[in-house]
Design a protein that fits this description.
ABC-2 type transport system ATP-binding protein; alpha/beta; 290 residues; Rossmann fold; binds adenosine-5'-triphosphate
């Protein structure tokens, strides 16, 4: 279980990024972390990995506090960062030198990922493209079998076939003991993979908050996504945009009408109406206390 309790953090004095942030994440799921540029997704990952410390409040990952950076904690969490540096060594050497830090690292699993991504052990990391390097890191992260796997914008730089490969590999590497959190702007790439969805939005001009944390089922129970020819004033429409033949809307769903979640429109709705979204989801059991 991952728990942020009343966490405050800011890089600069007097300019908080988070204030009193609460968020609980349970094992067995692939969470999607969405938020506008600068919302603090990478910062949240760095706090979770113990690379930054909260100014106040507490963060717990299982029985550990990341800021203590205990070896038993560090060997059970892996972060695939958005920007990274890899040494000029062959893939095999990279695996040989880093795998020992992760007791559950599975070499056969890593070898299968390398093969699947069309790479070979003998290739030098410095001679790979950005997307190929990213594949090595993603494969390594999956093969660590850590209890917590954080991936910051993992599909950036991946070509189209690799994105579906990525979805398949991640889906195959999650189990009831593992918590995977993926931050992304590429919602179309990951629509079929991430559930629950966590969305950060600006609460007031001063800081960011978790405006939504809900499963896809909870979202479609409360919101209706669809196309209408006209904007009906009797319907509680939270978001609309022009589309071929009318409007694509996101509306409140008091009758629980079925519809298909559109993550991009959900994201826009949450940014436009964070307070209403918080109210609408206030009764879900998985609500992030805000
Ligand atoms: N090392 C740093 N020093 C000072 N401010 C920083 C630092 N890193 C990030 N910030 C600021 O903190 C805020 C959150 O940054 P962060 O990178 O966590 O956002 P993000 O949600 O990951 O953004 P993006 O979607 O653009 O990747 C931004 O306003 C950013 O300018």
């Amino acid at each position: 279980m991952i728990e942020f309790r009343e966490v405050s953090f800011g890089y600069k004095r007097g300019k908080p990024l988070y204030e009193g942030l609460n968020l609980t994440l349970s094992p067995g799921s692939i969470y999607g972390l969405l938020g506008p540029n600068g919302a603090g997704k990478s910062t949240l990952f760095r706090l979770l990995a113990g690379l930054l410390y909260p100014k106040s409040g507490s963060i717990r990952v299982g029985e550990y506090m990341p800021e203590n950076r205990q070896p038993a904690f560090l060997e059970d969490l892996f972060l695939v960062p958005e920007e990274f540096y890899l040494p000029a060594v062959r893939i095999k050497q990279f695996v040989d030198s880093n795998a020992p830090f992760y007791p559950r690292f599975d070499r056969a699993q890593m070898a299968a990922y390398i093969r699947e991504f069309g790479l070979t052990d003998n290739q030098k990391l410095s001679e790979l493209s950005y997307g190929q390097k990213k594949k090595v890191l993603i494969g390594f992260g999956l093969a660590t079998n850590t209890a917590v796997l954080l991936m910051d914008e993992p599909t950036n730089g991946l070509d189209i076939p690799s994105k579906s490969q990525f979805r398949r590999l991640v889906a195959g590497a999650v189990n009831e003991n593992r918590t995977v959190v993926i931050s992304t702007h590429q919602v179309r790439d990951l629509e079929a993979l991430i559930d629950p969805i966590v969305i950060l939005a600006e609460r007031s001009r001063s800081h960011m908050t978790v405006a939504l944390k809900a499963t896809v089922e909870e979202i479609t129970a409360r919101l209706w996504f669809g196309l209408v020819s006209e904007l009906d004033k009797n319907r509680a429409i939270l978001y609309s945009e022009r589309a071929v033949g009318g409007y694509a809307i996101v509306a409140e769903n008091p009758m629980g009408e079925p519809s298909r979640l559109d993550l991009e429109r959900l994201f826009n709705t949450v940014q436009a109406e964070p307070a209403r979204i918080q109210q609408l989801f206030a009764s879900t059991s998985t609500l992030a206390s805000i």
